[in-house]
Write a structure and sequence with these properties.
Structural class: alpha+beta
CATH class of one domain: Alpha Beta
Number of strands: 12
Shape: elongated
Order of helices and strands: EEHEHEEHHEHEEHEEHHEE
Largest sheet: 5 strands, antiparallel
Number of helices: 8
CATH architecture of one domain: 2-Layer Sandwich
Length: 378
């Protein structure tokens, strides 16, 4: 019987059988060979791998180093063995072990010939490994090239969307300011106020987009530092609700928190603020006057689940899958014709995933939406 074993670089320095030929009958399963300097490492195979030299058991009945395997070997009719190291560039990676039914069967010439065969075998194994590695590398390069091409196409599309979204508020501001810069005395107070409101809304929309775009670009280029620390999420929620209260009052929307307990989490304060700001802004934008926007939290074994819930227009089921994606644009006008940037939810997803959490939405068209995200407790 002949078998090939590879030396593993694990804690116990085990030898893994890779192939065999001849009368084996389950013998290899009983070996438990190691190439460490221990009792089970002093047999021919372990010794050949550890020393890098040929090792021989001339008689299994009398060789004390072969005691751990003697019983199983004799059952199968083995009487002696020779183990030859398999090397590449001077480093032994395995052994070729040959068994005989006769004691001391290998002459010096035969041992030399077998050593040459082991060298040829090691060369062949190395060549096969190299070809496999080369093929895997080529396949990986092809895959990376395809992914890069797809990513570039996606980002080109994304930048086209952003450019279009930036163009709209600037067009409104330019149009309104051009009219007012002519001769404002031709307009009454209400008309001037109307143009002013258009310019303000356009500037706010453009600023919101630029703010999100800046944070997203910093995240993509690695210049946005992720600094998690212990914070009280109740304080963060209350702070963001306070900042959005004026916007909610202008639309006659009730905005409040149902969070009453102090909950400590580990999170990046700036990123968490960005997530809540975008979700609250969207909820107010798509809720009709007289509606409600609430923030809730729930604690389970591993996470804090934060929910921003509104009584707004809701999202058609067919459009839910378009959210949180860079390659598609899903943005509608708000209930007061507010313009969406199309970037806020993408940024939310980016920042939630940096925390090891996930974000999703539960929505029914005409019945409002509940945007939920998790922040791991640890």
């Amino acid at each position: 019987m002949v078998w090939i074993g590879y030396a593993r670089e694990d804690v116990d320095k085990t030898v893994k059988p890779m192939a065999f030929a001849g009368f084996e009958k389950g013998y290899l399963e009983t070996l438990n060979i190691t190439w460490a300097d221990t009792e089970r490492g002093h047999g021919p195979t372990g010794t050949a791998i550890r020393t890098g030299k040929m090792s021989m058991c001339r008689n299994m009945l009398t060789d004390l180093n072969f005691v751990p395997w003697r019983e199983q070997a004799i059952k199968r009719g083995y009487a002696s063995s020779i183990a030859l190291p398999l090397k590449v560039k001077g480093k032994t990676f395995g052994a070729l072990t040959i068994y005989s039914r006769e004691p001391d069967p290998f002459t010096e010439d035969e041992a030399g010939l077998l050593s040459e065969i082991a060298s040829d075998l090691a060369y062949g194994i190395t060549a096969i490994r190299w070809r496999i590695a080369q093929h895997e590398a080529e396949e990986k390069l092809k895959k990376n090239a395809a992914e890069l091409k797809e990513l570039n196409a996606t980002k080109d599309k994304f930048f086209g969307i952003i450019a279009h979204d930036l163009k709209n508020p600037f067009a409104s501001m330019l149009g309104s300011s051009e009219i007012l810069s002519g001769d404002p005395s031709h307009f009454d107070y209400e008309t001037i106020k109307k143009f002013g409101a258009i310019m303000y809304d356009s500037a706010k929309s453009g600023y919101s987009l630029l703010e999100n775009l800046l944070e997203w670009s910093r995240s993509q280029t690695g210049t946005l530092t992720f600094i998690p620390k212990k914070i009280n999420i109740l304080d963060i929620i209350n702070e963001n609700i306070t900042n959005m209260t004026a916007t909610a009052i202008n639309k006659k929307i009730q905005l409040y928190s149902e969070v009453t307990n102090d909950l400590e989490i580990t999170a990046d304060t700036n990123m968490l603020n960005t997530i809540l700001r975008n979700l609250l802004n969207n909820a107010i934008k798509f809720t009709y006057p007289g509606g409600k926007v609430t923030v809730q939290t729930e604690k389970n074994e591993n996470n804090i689940i934060v929910t921003v819930k509104d009584t707004g227009v809701g999202i058609p089921k067919v459009d839910i899958q378009k959210l949180f994606r860079i390659d598609t644009k899903y943005t509608n006008y708000g209930t007061a014709d507010e313009r969406g940037t199309g970037l806020g939810l993408l940024l939310c997803k980016e920042f939630v995933e940096k925390h090891g959490g996930r974000i999703w939405v539960e929505s029914e068209e005409g019945e409002g939406s509940a945007f939920k995200f998790t922040i791991p407790l640890i």
